[in-house]
Amino acid sequence: MAIHLRISGVVQGVGYRASFEAQARRLHLAGWVRNRVDGSVEAMVDGPTEAIDRIIAWSRRGPSQAHVSGVQVTAAEDAALIPGRFDVLPTA
């Protein structure tokens, strides 16, 4: 089950990407996370449903310095993510 997340609020410059990566790795999710030029954070993750549910719940809180105002979650068809690999990508 792969999903695409778009997280808005105060989510850049507060360690959100690094914290998201650490959480995703703890949950053994595949995918990536990156900042967007509009100030949001974007992620694509794939893994078991329970782990996906946990990363979605975490993304609504984020690290302590973040102030998340919204999380958009959409199904990601043909995500082509590499199992066991999670990356932090450059800003897009």
TrEMBL record:
InterPro entries: Acylphosphatase (IPR020456), Acylphosphatase-like_dom (IPR001792), Acylphosphatase-like_dom_sf (IPR036046), Acylphosphatase_CS (IPR017968). Keywords: Hydrolase. Its EC number is 3.6.1.7. The keyword DNA-binding does not apply. Residues 2-90 form the Acylphosphatase-like domain. Gene3D superfamilies: 3.30.70.100. GO terms for molecular function: acylphosphatase activity. Belongs to the acylphosphatase family. The keyword Ribonucleoprotein does not apply. It catalyses: an acyl phosphate + H2O = a carboxylate + phosphate + H(+). This is acylphosphatase. The active site is at R17, N35. It is an enzyme of class 3 (hydrolase).
